[in-house]
Amino acid sequence: MEKVKPRTLTGFMELLPGEQIEFDRFTDVLKQSYIKYGFYPLDTPVLESSAVLLAKAGGETEKQIYRFKKGDTDLTMRFDLTVPLAKYAALHYNELNFPFKRYQIGKVYRGERAQKGRFREFYQADIDIIGDGELSIVHDAEIPAVIYDIFSTLGIGGFKIRINNRKLLSGFFELQSLSERIDDVLRTVDKLDKIGRDGVMRELGEIGVSDEAAADIIAFVNTEGTSDERLAAAEKYAGKNETFDKGLEELKTVVGYVRLFGVPDDNFTVDFAIARGLDYYTGTVYETVITEHPEFGSVCSGGRYDNLAEFYTDKKLPGVGISIGVTRLFSVLKETGFFDFEKASPVDALIIPMTQNMGYCISVMKTLREKGVRVQTYFEDKKLKKKMTYANRINAPYAVIIGDDEIAAGKVALKNLDTGEQTVCTAVEAAAIITE
Amino acid sequence: MEKVKPRTLTGFMELLPGEQIEFDRFTDVLKQSYIKYGFYPLDTPVLESSAVLLAKAGGETEKQIYRFKKGDTDLTMRFDLTVPLAKYAALHYNELNFPFKRYQIGKVYRGERAQKGRFREFYQADIDIIGDGELSIVHDAEIPAVIYDIFSTLGIGGFKIRINNRKLLSGFFELQSLSERIDDVLRTVDKLDKIGRDGVMRELGEIGVSDEAAADIIAFVNTEGTSDERLAAAEKYAGKNETFDKGLEELKTVVGYVRLFGVPDDNFTVDFAIARGLDYYTGTVYETVITEHPEFGSVCSGGRYDNLAEFYTDKKLPGVGISIGVTRLFSVLKETGFFDFEKASPVDALIIPMTQNMGYCISVMKTLREKGVRVQTYFEDKKLKKKMTYANRINAPYAVIIGDDEIAAGKVALKNLDTGEQTVCTAVEAAAIITE
């Protein structure tokens, strides 16, 4: 038979079994945190009507999407989890209870040019809290608490949640008589990390900002010090612009609550340089950087928005949320050697029969499973060496070796494959040792 | 602003929040069982190259698929989890350890004509055990053990796993001198449940089977009695056809091991009518019916195949597996009223502040979460009645009411929303009561 060469498309992550165990453990940390904080699960279709999914989309989005026709139906694969949430909230408005808190962990699709670290299919893990007409600012402070919980549990070392407020930035630009160009200025300031002070100065000049105003802006967004020192520095501009004052007030409130939620000052900071330039945020904004890997950029970003679903409904649905790009985060951490795939095993123990009496092996397996041990039996008729190699290759921590002697004694030989230590004991005793 | 009417495509299941909690609980039962039995997780892309995904596909599949071009790339959305597994096993052959046991729970896509109970996007939950060159028949008996475990845990009442062997059927048809038409006969026999005895007689006649042979076939596949009685009835045909004898031997072996795995005779039966007509199975075949709902048809089917990846590789990779159509099963069970969505809540408790002191509420929330309680706080500034309505609408089992009196006493008022009972206690005591 003529064979088709098997391959996986570029930009589509497909993991080896041990890697997949770690990936699942990773996403499970996110899921369990989201659940603990009272978020509903949500699962929306990967495919939606193009008219619905692209109601808001601009040119950049259009280019990157997977869009096609099936019969007469114009379909698009979702490119984020926010637009489907907006559709969902508008469509099911009467059946939802607000504040509506939901998490969604799912694949999204972007037909970007293939390059290292860029994926065309990737998981996003989002949470959003949606209000009906209004939404308490305390929610803005709970979001960093969730981020803190997740990144602490993942154990990826130091991290810092950078918090700012878009009103404060907009107000500051208004003070510089730049109210006409706030979006352009925001977008430019957002590039500070990427193109540096000089780059931002030059680009601000190009969009007509005077050197003096540009220097002021850069000095402000680069304000150094503790969160409290930065807030104090901002106070100097207070009382001159309503938007600025509102933003500063919100930011102070959020910082106060973030501390009450137990997020240590080591793990968050006020940072006036955070703009989330291209996004639709209107208040609090967040970015999260891993201390040892600033080169990853922000691994968890989000913010507050005034109106989630304005393209679908007249209802005003303000919200606050974040998104973690799980596939990218996993992929970059993998490159740093963060994961120990050698420890990833589908089993806690592998039963190795050295007998034809599979019935006894099966009864031992049943006992172990009832005690919560993940276990399988190597049923194939192979030499012991081959069976042990298999146990090592799947990283089984224990081998449960069963020969006719063990059967006669009603026992098993339990071998710790790490230390090589071997003991003869009952299946129940083996379960206790394995699950210890 | 002009609004786009929000809608979800026909044939794409989108659940309300409470329903989604139950759906997730449902799939989690499957996942935890699969993990306990030592299956690796696997996650393959939803999109694959059409040349790869359609290597084997016939006309029916081609019509039902979502296939499109992005630039020059011809893409297809996966229509099952078996073809991606075949690709994966062939592509990563050198990095896998055989037997390779994997589970995959994921969405698949079929552009079928929209009708009740038919989905265009739906979850499949598959397990397969793949051998390299050969695979012990004991695995064929472990599959029903997994099914038994899952359906017992789901608590959907009585169910029966029907087990047969394709070699036994094929051999029987050869005995009827129908070796040229085995596939057609299998396909027809498979319709017994749907079109009845007379329908099968007529269709067998149409494909040229004599009335006598047809009557023999129907009598054989309708053999009644216990599994042992049915096996004994089959013995009568033994010794005349090698394929039949091999199939009978395999079936007896499987039945023996299935019992050793602890599956009660109440939950499985030998059934010569099971053919899995359109599938590629070559040995053991399974179907599972829910006793109270035979109208659902088989909710979990599968079997043994000789060669998983023959379209991609010369390696012979025999396997055995099953697939559960999760979306359909959930959907039909939902219609029977099986789920109690009124009990589905995103929280174990809702904190209701009757104070402006949110700091105290947040510290109580922290304590509860540390004790494993899923909790959120109603931060919005609303009347108590509105807050209690919210608690009831999200089905919160408990309300933790905090006013200035409670704060002064360092306590909370814990209200059981089911009984109405209210007690004043510390946050730690509340956690103990809630998690009880």
Automatic annotation (TrEMBL), chains A, B:
UniProt: L-histidine binding residues: D80, L81, T82, R110, Q124, D128, R276, Y280, Y281
Cellular localisation: Cytoplasm
Family matches, as InterPro entries: aa-tRNA-synth_II, aa-tRNA-synth_II/BPL/LPL, Anticodon-bd, Anticodon-bd_dom_sf, His-tRNA-ligase, HisRS-like_core, HisRS/HisZ, HisRS_anticodon
Matches recorded under Gene3D superfamilies: Anticodon-binding domain, Bira Bifunctional Protein, Domain 2
Taxonomy, superkingdom: Bacteria
GO molecular function annotations of the record: ATP binding; catalytic activity, acting on a protein; histidine-tRNA ligase activity; transferase activity
Gene Ontology annotations of biological process type: histidyl-tRNA aminoacylation
Entry keywords, A to Z: Aminoacyl-tRNA synthetase, ATP-binding, Cytoplasm, Ligase, Nucleotide-binding, Protein biosynthesis
CDD domains named among the record's database cross-references: HisRS-like_core, HisRS_anticodon
GO cellular component, one term: cytoplasm
Catalyzed reaction equations: tRNA(His) + L-histidine + ATP = L-histidyl-tRNA(His) + AMP + diphosphate + H(+)
Pfam families named among the record's database cross-references: HGTP_anticodon, tRNA-synt_His
Subunit text: Homodimer.
Family named by the database record: Belongs to the class-II aminoacyl-tRNA synthetase family.
HAMAP family: His_tRNA_synth
Record protein name field: Histidine--tRNA ligase
Organism this protein belongs to: Candidatus Ornithomonoglobus intestinigallinarum
Lineage, uppermost ranks: Bacteria, Bacillati, Bacillota, Clostridia, Candidatus Ornithomonoglobus
